Amino acid sequence: MSDALDGALISRVSDWPKTFKEAFCEKYRCSQDQYIRRAFRACLYRRAVLFAPVIKALSPNFFQVDMDAIERVGSQQFSFWRLFVRETG
């Protein structure tokens, strides 16, 4: 990424006062109670969308690590992403 583009992206992202969860729910028009389920589904490969409910029914804790990660990401203020963008380039 060029320095100008990198700087513009960092300033645009870091100045946003919302959490990722709030922004996601606004974009996808869902309640914050639906965030984890909707974000999890959005992260799945298309083929996995049909199998995930079956796997979850058979083994309720199978996706727990994924759900925990989605919850942690959702609680981050966008100022966190400034560091993330800088570190990952």
Structure overview:
By secondary structure, this protein is an all-alpha fold. It has one domain. It is built from 6 helices and no strands. It has helices spanning 3-14, 20-28, 35-43, 48-58, 64-74, 78-88. The longest helix is centred in the first third of the chain and has 12 residues, at 3-14. The mean pLDDT is 80.
Cα radius of gyration in angstroms: 16 Å
Helix content estimate:
over 70%
End-to-end gap: 7 Å
Number of helices: 6
Strand tally: 0
Short description:
The protein is mainly α. The chain has 6 helices and no strands.
Summarize the topology.
Blueprint: H1 3-14, H2 20-28, H3 35-43, H4 48-58, H5 64-74, H6 78-88
Helix pairs in contact: 1-6, 3-5
